[in-house]
Amino acid sequence: MNTPDPRPPEGLTARYGPQRASTPPSPVPPREPDPHVRRRAVLKAMGALPILSVALPRSPAAAAAAAPVVVDPSARRQTIRGFGGMNHPAWAGDLTAAQRDTAFGNGTGQLGFSILRIHVDEDRANWGAEVATAQRAVAHGAIVFASPWNPPASMTETFTHGSQTNAKRLRHDMYGAYAQHLNDFTAFMKSNGVDLYAISIQNEPDYASTWTWWTADEIVTFLRNNAGSISTRVIAPESFQYVKSMSDPILNDPTALANLDILGAHLYGTPFANFPYPLFQQKGQGKDLWMTEVYYPNSTDSADLWPAALGVGEHMHHAMVDAEFQAYVWWYIRRSYGPMREDGQISKRGAIMAQFARFVRPGYVRVNAASNPQTNVYTSAYTGGSTVVIVAVNKATSAVSQQFTLANTTPTGVASYVTDASRNVASLSGPSLAGGTLSATLPAQSVTTFVVTVGTSGGTDTTPPTAPGTPTATAVTTSSVTLSWPASTDNTGVTGYDVVQLGGSTETTAATSTTAGATVTGLSAGTAYTFAVYARDAAGNRSTRSGTVTATTSTTGGSTGGCGIGYQVTGSWSGGFQGEIVIHNTGATALTGWTLAFTFTAGQTITQMWGGTPTQSGSTVTVAPVDYTRAIPAGGSVSIGFLADQGGTNPAPTAFTLNGGACTTAV
């Protein structure tokens, strides 16, 4: 419904103001003004406003001389969780039934969103407003996560923050109660058929003049002491401008980091140069990196303004390639400046987002490709099963020629789609395909998506192998680890396996093998490494990834020595329990660095852990140490606590291995 909006212009600040606007003339619920009214002035003062560059035309000769973009599906980077946006019924009105399908459906004229962000209201009486759209998103296969702006009023206190004398913060004695508040919201949504993928601790804790402030130290304290009790994945810190000083302390605190699942960030006014995050790549192994809120380039222009909307494509490109985010989430889904207009139709900005969202699906992996092959052209590539997706942004005012060469695989067919001044995600003919090279023309000021089918040159085998079984680590030394795994199967036969090492959100090939086993060498002593495996067939089809295993190299060069395990259930309730594992070093020398492995036998699933970092694939659990449990002196021990879900029975594991060596139990 396209009705007059009673709110002030939505600049880059105060998109969530506390005052209720006057009731619109048509029967739409009153909406709170968006909280970006002052943000534009703030960012302007900081010199951080995003600016749309003017694309200069290229001559045909220069375009023809551009080097081919080499796309290598075997050189894998981050796994993509999806693209999406925010629904906030209290502030923007709920999406209608038709608009939900437009947002989360993946057909012609739909956005293809696979992530929905919702609001955790401080008043549980308002929680029901989030249900209908979340249920429909889940029905379309989307994941749902939630962010709070404020705790319940009974949990907060006022303090002076700079010139703000009525600033609000969570009382330090209420951290446990607040964790329970987040758990209660999670349970409420689950009871309504929406299993939250994750929940945030706080929306924009560093930009909170009208909601709740948190310092970086307070976030670390909460993560250390309270986040372990939260029953779903935990997101933090959701800084409004990807301020690294808000997230560095988390990455530098092993206990806090162990209780974090997703490092979330907002990108308001963040320059592209600040998108990379080397510290996360260094220390964020096993964690996700998400961009959880933005609009770009502003909230004052119509989302259909062209070519301004093309800037969204460049912004998404840098978010995927430079920042290596795994999720890209817009602010309001339906808005004059959003992916869907107030009349429920997809805007130009939305069509640009759909060029990514409809074709780069959850579970796809970004792969290496030249990022900026010629002036004003930006390319990124992704793979999933027997499909390679290439997204090309051309900001130039004239069409350009660009070749794409696929390495280590054979393209057998290609479809292409374009959004430009006159078309929205429109099907194109071509490009021409010769051998392993696509020769394409990128229309002026456009985003073009190429969906490439890969397989044999005759196209007779496009079925990938099944995923290999979860690998097991044995023979762990100071510099190597031997992995073995249940073999993959294929309709024509598996020809090889690729072992990858996971670091942050990226994958690096660590070894290849023609059998279901490999030894990875060249590792550093006393370091935890996480590995997974892919299978390949003769046609070049690649399987989905196996489960992961984490192994910690030793520091002594010898075997594990003696070890004993104490395992006990310390508390239980309907559907869940709390447990403790004690690792005893019964050897004669200190143990620095370890990997514990065991298998549940009744479907138990670990949901949180402290003292260790778990990885679970099916019933197999692998635990790596955190810093304060990494060293176990001779005759000493360390304790690990955890929460887990259970079914009707809860038998204890019967066997444990430490660095691949069997341990005695019940010591």
UniProtKB/TrEMBL annotation:
CDD domains in the record: FN3
Database matches in InterPro entries: CBD2 (IPR001919), CBM2/CBM3_carb-bd_dom_sf (IPR008965), CBM2_carb-bd_dom_sf (IPR012291), FN3_dom (IPR003961), FN3_sf (IPR036116), GH (IPR017853), Glyco_hydro_30 (IPR001139), Glyco_hydro_b (IPR013780)
Superkingdom field: Bacteria
GO BP annotations listed: sphingolipid metabolic process; xylan catabolic process
SUPFAM superfamilies: (Trans)glycosidases, Carbohydrate-binding domain, Fibronectin type III, Glycosyl hydrolase domain
Residue span(s) of domain Fibronectin type-III: 467-556
Keywords noted in UniProt: Carbohydrate metabolism, Glycosidase, Hydrolase, Polysaccharide degradation, Signal, Xylan degradation
Alphabetical list of Gene3D superfamilies matching this protein: 2.60.40.290, Glycosidases, Golgi alpha-mannosidase II, Immunoglobulins
This protein's record includes keyword Signal: yes
GO cellular component labels: membrane
Pfam assignment, any one: fn3
Family of this protein: Belongs to the glycosyl hydrolase 30 family.
Record keyword Amino-acid biosynthesis present: no
Name of the featured protein: Glucuronoarabinoxylan endo-1,4-beta-xylanase
All copies of domain CBM2, residue ranges: 556-666
GO molecular function: glucosylceramidase activity; polysaccharide binding
Region described as Disordered: 1-35
